[in-house]
Amino acid sequence: MGITKSKICALIPFYNEEKFIEETVRKTANFVDLIVAVNDGSTDKSVELIKNQEKIIVVNHEKNLGKGAAIKTGFEKALKLNCDLLITLDADMQHNPDYIPQFIEKAKEENADLVIGNRRWNVSGMPPHRRLSNFLTSKLLTIKTGAKILDSQSGYRLFRCGKLPLLFPKFTGFEAESEILVKAARNNLKISFVNIPTIYNDNKSKMKSVQAIIGFIKVLFI
Q1: Which of 19, 50, 72, 182 is the one with CA 20 to 30 A from 142?
Q2: The pTM is what?
Q3: How far is CA 75 from CA 20, 45, 180, in A?
């Protein structure tokens, strides 16, 4: 498949991200053909801020179902839209859209099915508890899958859409991102990495530590 002629789409799941989502969508639009923004039951002004922006398709969940559920909805929509490449990134500007061309180039260079943004090449900007958590989860997933996973918690990813049916998550929370990596390895997908900066802003994380740990443990046993 020729990367340069591909229909490139972005998937941005979001829940109450009115502070950053407008900027995220606007900058992402510079690099893709379409943006699928999955509103996971937001109660703030997020949808109003982006619904009329360029290249945007908003898909709404009536209530908050979890990031995994939003990713699944986005995968389904990307397939219906006949996208060739799908870039997933968070709505809070912790994933700089300016790096999207590097993901596309890496997929082209290495014929990768999945390209993951790797922040662990320089963890100086990562809070200590996140650094430890990422190290442990990446190590455990590497052991489980037999594939080298450099940054298991990065949601900044590129997928070849032809492979998406193999990767649909069953988990509905943040653990779905680890589940996808397990499924990618089991299906012998080519996984590559792009170094990206570690960005943390003043946006409060929606990840609940206890739920995330329990969810990850469940993933280890699938």
Answers
A1: 72
A2: 0.88
A3: 23, 24, 12
- Tell me 97's DSSP state: G
| Helical (H) or strand (E) element with 144 | helix 128-145
Q: What does the alpha-carbon distance between residue 219 and residue 176 come to, in Å, rounded to a whole number?
A: 8
| Residues 180-212 pLDDT 10s | 999 999 999 999 999 999 876 665 655 556 777
Instruction: Kindly give, in sequence order, each residue whose CB lies less than 8 Å from that of residue 202, ignoring residues fewer than 6 positions away.
Output: none
Residues forming beta bridges with residue 40, ordered by sequence position: 61
Give tens-digit pLDDT for 77-94: 999 999 999 999 999 999
Q: Tokens in use for 46?
A: 């997020």
Instruction: Give the total residue count for the chain.
Output: 222
Query: Can you tell me the distance from the alpha carbon of 13 to that of 41, in angstroms, rounded to the nearest whole number?
Result: 10
Residue with tokens 């792009």: 194
Contacts of 212 (CB under 8 A, 6+ apart): 173, 174, 175
> Greater confidence, 134 or 157?
157
- Ranges of H-type helices in 146-193: 176-186
Q: Indicate the residue type of 189.
A: L
3-220 under CATH 3.90.550.10, yes or no:
yes
Nearest to 53 by CA among 40, 71, 35: 35
Closest CA to 183 of 168, 202, 201: 168
CB 160 within 8 A of CB 113: yes
